[in-house]
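fyi for ur records
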Amino acid sequence: MTDSITVFNRRAVRRHRDRAARGGGEDSDLLFRESAERLLDRLDDVTRSFPLALEFGCRSGEMGKTLRGRSGIDTLVQCDLSEAMAAQAGGMALAADEEALPFTDAVFDLVIGNLSLHWVNDLPGALIQMRRALKPDGLFLAAMFGGDTLIELRQALAEAEIAEEDGLSPRVSPMAEVRDLGGLLQRAGLALPVVDSETLTVMYPDPMALMADLRAMGETNAAVESRKGFTRPATLAAAAARYSDLFATSDGAIPATFQIITLTGWAPDASQQQPLQPGSATSRLADALDAEEHPLPDKARPT
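which gave:
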């Protein structure tokens, strides 16, 4: 594990997921299903099989229903921070924290997760645990929300809170940036790391419908530094009005941005392609280009 700053109240995250498990409904899972399909498309591009797979942050099993039997997966183990979510997933599912996975080293051929890691406090530590759980040359594949997620709501809430409460606190949880995640994969010991992102824009009839959907998804704010208690009705009303003023379309609908970052890496193995050591080249660029090589003049030589 690594030293980490406590950004999120993990008990609050669990409560939010428990509540979502009791009454989220299919409509609230649309974003998760869309992200899962994109993640599985990435998995299909890998031409190999993964007999034993782990899905972390499985929620109610949305992705697992499609994942079983796909990409040569014979056995799928699932886990979620919420016991209520894990119970709904069915199959081999258990309640487990991404920050303290209960698995021994070198067990799984695949570790995969959909829209869960953005709630983790110790992301480097969680990635290290997931890498350790992989067999050599096992695949890590995950999607998480990025820093541009809900950018419209962040702005509207910030402006409303400053106007109504003469202060500002995090009302939407902070999220990771693409530029930081490649280094975290390498720090976790994953080989051949790849990080990319795409943006989904979801239209809602009004800002209150968006906030209700976030609650149904279990994605409401769990930042430790947020103000305690409920947001004042006047602040919510001001935020909704500001959201519509800034972003509403001609028919009154409002957009909500969700940035989805995909992380890919492999547990190190001697069979993987390795970078060449400096000075190990056995041929010259001039030969490959069929060009004549000219030495640098003395003034251009490094000293």
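DSSP finds ten helices and seven strands in the chain. thats all i got for now
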